[in-house]
Every structure is written in C-alpha cells, then in structure tokens.
Amino acid sequence: MKNYSVFDILGPIMIGPSSSHTAGAARLGKVARGIAGEDFKAVTFYLHGSFAKTYKGHGTDRALVAGVLGMETYDERLRNALFIAKDMGIDIKFIETDLGDEHPNTVNIEFEKKDGSKISVQGASIGGGNIIINKIQGDSVEFTGTNPTLIIKKYDLKGSINTITSIIAESDINIGMMKVTRQGKGKEGLMILETDSKITDEIVEKIEKVDGVISVRAINPV
Amino acid sequence: MYNYGYEMLQLAKEKNVRLCDIVIENEVKLTEQSVEVVREKMGRNLDVMMDSAKYGLENDVKSVSGLIGGDAKKLEEYRKNGKTLCGDVIVKAMARALSCSEVNAAMGRIVAAPTAGSCGIMPAAIITAAEVLGADREKMIDALFTASGIGQIIGKNATFAGAEGGCQAECGAAAAMAAAGIVEMAGGTPEMALHAASIALKNILGLVCDPIAGLVEAPCAKRNSSGTVNAMTSAELALAGIKSIIPFDEMVETMYRVGKALPEELRETAMGGIAVTPTGIKLRKQIFGE
Ligand code: SF4
Is residue A94 located within the same domain as residue A177? Predict the structure, then answer.
C-alpha cells in the first residue's frame, strides 16, 4: 500500500483540463527540453494513440509546447504557449502518427537545434501527471526525469562501468538507480543512472574522458 | 499511519482530537516537515481553489473545445434573482462547482481534488459551508486536511481513476472527502465525519465515467455540481446524528469492487454511456472535425 501524502490527494495545482493529457504533456516537454538543451529553432511533435486523437480538445499541443519552452504545469501562460513560441520565432509542428506498440499517450519530440543538428526524445504520460521517457535518439531508455539522471552512451568495455560509478561516488553522490543495456558484447550500449543530488559539469567532463565513452548527457530537474 | 477509517477513528479517540489533527500529524511525520510548512502548503491549495471557484461566477468561461462554459455565471445570476427552489446556499455551491470545472476545461489553474475532472466538489462544498458557518481560513484548511485523510484511505484501498473505477471513483471520492471535511468544520465528531463520507459514496455507487469526445467537460461539470450537493446533504444527515448503516471502510471496498465490475466502455474510454448517444457522437465529430 502506497503511503499517500495529503498533497498526492489534494494537488497538484495545475492548468486543466486533464492530468494525463495536459499536466503530463507539459512535463514531457519540459524533461525533453532538459535533454535536448535550450538552443533549438524548431520542434516537431509526433503524436501517437490517444494523444493523436484528442490532443486539440485537451490542449495537449499547448501543454507540450509550454513544456519545451520550460514552463511548469501550473503556469497560466501554458494556454498561450503556441503564440509565445511563434513570437520567439520557434517553428512548431504537430504530426499525427503511429509509433507502433507504445503507450496510448506517447509523443516523440524532435528538436532542431540552431546549428542544424537534430535530437529526438520520446516519452509517455502514464497517468496522474506522471511521465516516463522511453527513447532518446531512438535508443531505448527508461526514466522519469524526477531525479537527476545521467545518460551515458558507450562501448561495452571491461571495467568501464566501475570507473564511471567510482567517479560519481568520489563526488559524494548517491546512485538511486542504474540500468545498463548493450547491443552485444563489446558493442555500443547505454548506461542510465538516477542520482539523489545534482550532477555537475565536472562529473560529466570526467566521465567523457573514460575509455569507450561516446557521449554523456546530464539532466538536472529544476 | 492509518490504512483504514476505523484506524483513524481509533487514533482520534485515543488522543481525543479531530480527524484533521491525526492527518496533519501523519503528514508531518511522513514528509519530515513542520506543521507550519504543511499548513502553509495546504493554504496554497485553498487559494487556488478559491480563485477557481470564483472566476466562473463573474466571467463567461468557454472550454477549449467549446462544449461547455458560461453555466456557472448563468446559475449565479439566476440565484441573485432570488427565486431558487433549493435556496441560496445550495445554488451558490452548485455555481462554484461549475466554475471550477469550467476553469479547468478552459485551461485555467485548478487543484486536482482528487482529480482534475472532479476539481469542483471540494472547493464548492468547503467554501460554501465556511460561509454559512462563519469559519475562517484556518478552519477551512483544517477541513481540507480532514478531507485529504478520507482521500488517503480511498486511494490506499480503492482508486481515484475514472479509468479504473468510473466516475464514482472521481466525483464520488471528492464528495465523500468534502462531506467529511464540512462535518468536522461544523463541529461534528470524527465518527460523524466518516458516516458522512460513507453516505456520500453510497449515493453515487456505480456512477459511470462516460465523457463526451473523451474530454473532461460533459458530463463532468454537472457531476461536479451534483457531487457538491451530494457532499452537503450527506454532511447534513450525519450532523443530524443519522448513521450510515454500512461503515466507511466497507463502503470504500464496495466502491472499488463495483468499479472493477464496470465494463471498460463505462470507464473513461468514451465508448459507452452518454458518449455514444447520437448527440454525443455528433459532438465528437464536430470537435475533432472527423
Ligand atoms: S465523467 Fe469521467 S472524466 Fe468526467 S468527472 Fe466523471 S470520472 Fe472524470
């Protein structure tokens, strides 16, 4: 039995109308922004399932855009997010699509950065405003974005996991969850770590230098 | 911690305090925050509730889809004309509930209580009862804690999700929570508060979730209005000393059991109930341009 805080019962304070289709969508956008960075000029949202069918009625479109602009679920500007994005010169597109066997409230968010590079983040709104990120650049991941998260792309080299976790431990940061996947022995894989405290640039730089590491992304929720 | 109504009641009796005191004490323990911080946080919920309960009375709100809106203001104007059947108190409460639901559907700010769909019942019942009783802000905050305690037990032993339990789980839970809150606000005993919650749940047992076009608008807004009246009349019965024959914990269990017995069409899928009436289907097609 879950121990509910009274604020799980009364709350969150949010912009309506739906915790899954509005509040959850805004959170998805915001976490995706944390992954993609802020220097983007265009965003395309690929909407799947219930998101594709009902996004207009629930304001899911405005909520997603509000999220990528960094707004919170209770920010009253959320309602005008489409106009705000336009004013900022950010190109926004919505495409209804079928992403396959995914949760009905799934969106794939593709950012086009100012330097022309692209990054895509896919996630689902799983109820009550809770979300899960399940793909980054097509790689399968799984984390909520509520805790600081490190996403490390690397080759499967002996000892590299150890080296990375020691770097984190040396910085006195506790690891709450860790998941490692690989495409095969010695091949490319992902390492996802959720920590209890903020992941600094210093840690990221140290991990980037570890043998076999291809890229490191830190997401610190605000 | 308490998992059931009878445990809450026991704690309140042992310590000779109200339910809200038990709930606050538990929250302080659970979150390791001070009483002041926890009350202040609940106060922020109250502020948003008051705003959302008022806005629609004065403004013509239109939902995003255009399906609902303007009814809170209409009802408030009707009330002001002085010729209501139910009297000022009930009609004002109904209008407040509509206001919250309209604000929600128009992408305004609300407090999920316990859900966004049922966000009008708690504010409407608590604010209106406080007006009648002359209860101040602190007493309203107390009532919100009482209500949350009832909500914690429903959440633990049943569900709040329309997709799982139908509308009885959303608007029913909200009404039960509000009923208990206003009983304590009116000086009723913890026992009376549980009776009120139990009666409120019984009144809407089996209520289905069947939103037109899948949107949290219709029938939701009107069910918030009737849910508020349910909360207030249930509180009234309990305050008069009338007991629920079925105890609260058994009612929660029953609500859950009945919810799971509902076919999927009647659990937020918009595939049953009023959603599939010819009018419901026509509206869906209009809204989504099918
Ligand atoms: S009908 Fe369904 S969506 Fe509407 S308030 Fe009830 S449970 Fe929520």
Answer: no
* Site of tokens 């206001």: B99
Tokens read off for B85: 């059947």
Among A3, A4, A74, select the one facing B109 at the smallest CB separation.
A74
Supply the pTM of this predicted model: 0.88
Say yes or no: A181 and A202 in one domain.
yes
**Residue A1, pLDDT above cutoff 70:** no
Nearest atom in ligand 1 to the alpha carbon of residue B211 is: 1
| Radius of gyration over every alpha carbon of chain A, rounded to an integer in angstroms | 18
Tell me whether residues A17 and B216 touch, CB distance under 8 A: yes
Give B46-72 as a DSSP string: HHHHHHHHHHHHHS----SSSSS-SHH
Give the residue numbers spanning the domain of A117.
Answer: 6-143
B interface test, pick of A1, A3, A6, A60 with most B CB neighbours within 10 Å: A6
Nearest Cα residue to atom 6 of ligand 1: B167
What is the number of structural domains in chain A?
A: 2
Please state which of the four CATH numbers 1.20.1250, 2.60.40, 1.10.4100, 3.90.550 is assigned to the domain occupying B5-288.
1.10.4100
| Nearest atom of ligand 1 to the alpha carbon of B167 | 7
Q: What is the ipTM of this complex?
A: 0.94
Domain ranges of chain B: 5-288
Is residue A1 situated within a structural domain? Answer: no
Domain CATH code at residue A200:
3.30.70.260
pLDDT digits (tens, 9 = 90+) for B78-101: 999 999 999 999 999 999 999 999
Q: Which residue of A has its CA nearest to B220?
A: A17
Continuous segment of H or E residues that includes residue A56: helix A49-58
Same-domain status, A139 and A153: no
pLDDT digits (tens, 9 = 90+) for A157-195: 888 899 999 999 998 898 988 988 887 888 888 899 999
Closest CA in chain B for residue A80: B107
**E strand spans, chain A:** 13-15, 40-48, 91-96, 105-113, 118-127, 130-136, 139-143, 149-155, 175-182, 188-195, 213-219
Instruction: Say if CB B193 and CB B155 are below 8 A apart.
Output: no
Contact pairs from chain A to chain B, CB under 8 Å: 132
Mean pLDDT of chain B: 96
* Same domain for A42 and A110: yes
